[in-house]
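Quarterly update from the structural biology core.
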Amino acid sequence: MTDRLNELLLTPKEMAAVDAAAAETGIDSFGLMTNVGGAVAAAAMRLYPGALRFAVLCGPGNNGGDGYVAARFLAESGAGVSVFHLGDPDKLQGDALRARSECTVAREPLASYEPRPGDTIIDALFGAGLSRDVPPEAAYAMTAIRKAGLPVIAVDLPSGIHGATGEVLGTAFAASHTITFMTRKPGHLLMPGRELCGTLEVADIGIPGRIVRAQAVSGIAENTPARWAHLMPSSKMETHKYKRGHLVVFSGTSGKTGAARMSALSGLKAGAGLVTIAAPPDALPENSAHLTAVMLREVGGIAALEAWLEDDRLQTFVLGPGFGIGEQARDYAAALSDRHLVLDADGITSFRQEPRRLFDLFAGGETRLVLTPHDGEFARLFPDIAANTEIGKVGKAQMAAKRANAAIVFKGADTVIAAPDGRALINTNAPVWLATAGSGDVLAGIIGALLTQGLPAFEAAAAGVYLHGMAGQRAGKGLTAEDLAAHVLPY
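Predicted structure, tokenized:
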């Protein structure tokens, strides 16, 4: 499987379309199921060679069929195997029915399963296709297995995890290892699904890559450099500070200036040629005492800002970190509506009563606005989208991006970056210790630096999130925002 194919994330519906398209080309669907079951059996023997028994839990659909094939291969290899089925196995259809018929391992109802020491569980109950809460019989088995502390190998996705959203449907297995096929699904990367997958393996079962790529229409992928590295500014010798752009970060009032300095320093470290903090008069001494490479300019209100904006070289701004909530933030954003703006923290919250005012400012034309909300801030700007339980984090970010004509950075352990045209990336490189005060200020500065160097809004946001994660990895556990900013590096 090529690296490019491995970057794709297919929803369960898209993967079903892949299976159908493969069958239409003449590829034997039962042959594919056999390849799946063989890959699962091989992983089980490799990972748990000392297992006293493989307890294969088979569901009522094709995931269960995969389980029957795996059970057959394990039995043929001499391993101890028991099969426990959910529902009436005589009601299976198609390939799953054939798989059950060819599996001679004795079957028992799932309700009869009792954990034994030395058991290794193969979870072939539902996979990624489940869209309703786990039924009680399966939930009871999951609880018993969890209490017994037994290892679980999940086929495709731990049962109970929504394949498109990563959300838990009532309850779910916490797998030790998950084996999926051809490419991953959003539920493998979105929380809490990511944590419940354990180690993740992608097996090639013989579907041509062209068929997989043809069905990847949702525009969802993992956030990797392959998505934006070709747009990064080059490090040629003739580059000078003006070619690398001028980033402006707005400071709060006296006593609230640290967040802006964090953003400004991060922007400088991420490659902006010039960085200026624009501060009100009372914040000038405080900022001046802490700044060296970052420049400082007095901007005491909207009139001063509008006069400064007559210099059309000023094209990229960060507004929000420590700035304060209120009319001044709204006025500043309005004055910047024809420039590139990263709106964060207080800047976002300032529009909670009238988000449409913000969206109208940046409607139409190229995407100039980057919004970086966490869950609470997202709900303030997009309350109806946030409350929609029919869609997951990716869908919410995509809807918000389209509504606001903005690149959305929906922050969290599984940060999602979305564009108005429907593209969405899920970030995976952020260490848990990034969850610290000031971390978002650093991210805003990095994104601002990439915007000012010429990256489009979506790619600047995606690259900024990735570089932010890399800085967190370099800074290590126990980092503060100051440590994080110090470890920011250009790509």
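The two ends are 27 Å apart (CA to CA).
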